[in-house]
Amino acid sequence: MTAKKKASSKKVASKKAESEATFPSWLGKLPLALIAIGALLGIIGLIVDTTHFTHAWLVSFMFYLSICLGGFFLVLLHYLLDTHWIVPIRRIAEHLSCLLPVLAVFFIPIAIWSGMEFVTVSSGAEKHEHEQVSKAMEAGENAAAAHGEKVDLKGLAEGDHAHGHGGPRAFYAWMQTEKEYNKTHETHDHAWYAKKGYLNSTFWHLRWILCFVLWGLITWFMRKYSLAQDLDGASKWTSYNRKIAAGGIFIFAATLTIGAIDWMKGLEYQWFSTMYGVYYFAGSVWVSLITIYGISLFLKSYGPLKDVVQKTTLKDNATLFFAFTVFYAYIHFSQYFLIWNASIPEETFWYVKREQGTWWSVGMLIIFGHFFIPFLALLRQDVKVKPEIMITVTVLAWFLHFCDMSYNIMPLIHESDGWMRLIWIDLGCMAFMGGCLSMIFIHFFKSNPPYPQKDPRIAETMGVYIQLHSEAKTAGK
Amino acid sequence: MDSLDDYQIPYGVMAEFDTPADTMHAAEKVRDAGFERWDVHTPFPVHGMDEAMGLGNSKVGWFTFCCGLCGFFGGMLMIWFMNAYDYGIPVGGKPNFSPFASFPVAYEMTILFGAFGSLFGMLFLNRLPRLHHPLLKNIRFADVTHDKFFVVIEADDPKYEEDEVRALLKKSGSKHIELVTE
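ok -> structure tokens follow
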């Protein structure tokens, strides 16, 4: 780094007002525009199809939750492993993780809807559900017959799908079963009855409150200590955060799993998958890494992080993204493979439903777009720092993660065509939440130093060590 | 009259450095001077040296990729041939061949062949194994495994001119320069 560049980086760090001026003018207006468009589409969507709107809201919520939790994970990871590559862009991850309390606000409607009975399923999906259950049962009976066993699958399936047809049902269907059970003290829904120790409303509400409180506290403290270090540069702040991270990683693992199971998997509570938490985690960190990549590329080209974010920073970021591309594929394949291999109707119905009509295409899109394309595109080292390719990958990753969340949630209420027809509601929710979150993110970013200026590893990560030597050398001559 | 040295073929000029930073800047100078057949020897990997030497991406990746691809399709083909074509084994009413069941094995084969590709590709590109190297008989060069750094410009280089090479390396800050013979 030349002396001139160094001076400019110092200026950026100390005079925030100037760095703000370098941002394009549309940046301030974009969130507002997104909120306006999103709110309009959302309100129309709410009137046109309430069921779809609520599920679209959940898709959007789970999408942004992924990004924030991914940011949280990267902060924890940095303090646990003392990684230096992430230091220049750690502030971005910290701000993302501090958006979690905002997501708590977005979760409140879901908490209100959770037990309300208003969900109507599109006739196609209902019909299909019937067909799949009988198909799956047939297959199961054949398999059972082959092993010379007699299993009462019919009773089981009827109990499980008691609420799949006829009348409105609750957003989380098991809450309806629970209500009926509390009234009459009997139920035919064995799938719920066996799980009622975990799947009961009181515990469910306690869990989401606990998750958001823990997330809010941990992320807020970690950012607070990180910001305190910007002022005095004391190493004690790093050790504080290390201690928080050591416990926080366990809390993170537990709460993320709870979140994924309660809010997304709980929609189809009859299903079993022990990989679901890891599956959501893999997708979360994947999309979060590429989001951070995009943001840091933007901040690098528009000033604030111009001299701080190095080529190696971007390369390491992309490498970890690449690793998570493989990890996600591994996890999702394993989930599918185990269910396919065991071929038990209680498990297969989830994927059978997702192999019909458009959902089959979405599944293929996930296989190729979520894995093969980014995997093959990022195999080469030099591609990982090429802005035009990486921006394409960022857009692709956002789109695919949206598809992934929809793939988990939407088949419950739509066979397939209904989803495509009403996708503007989904996009409205995405725009609204994205607008709110980006507005707060920009506020966070502008009111704090853009990167951890006095982190013990900031010099190392900027490659200053070697350069200082050379400067001393040439100065000496 | 003739000393033994006069009958020996020069291998190249070797320059010794004390720190990674000095070596890196010497490498930058040699790179800028346009030499092609030269190398840097260090006791440990020095970050940024690839760029300082003007080296591009390693070509080992292509060996890994091609071998990995062969491993993947070879694995699939193997399972299809054995379980579905040559001697069909029906299991649990499933098709005799399915990409899902074959995937874990094909994946393992990808890794195995990819690793082979990396190892043998690396050996091939480095022209290894070889039994002897002229630098190894130099007593000072033994310190390369301890705390010394070396830049060596080979006599095969089209731009090689002993005096000029010596001058260049001296200008780069080397305290010890000597000619190494074959």
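Residues 23 and 301 of chain A are 10 Å apart (CA to CA).
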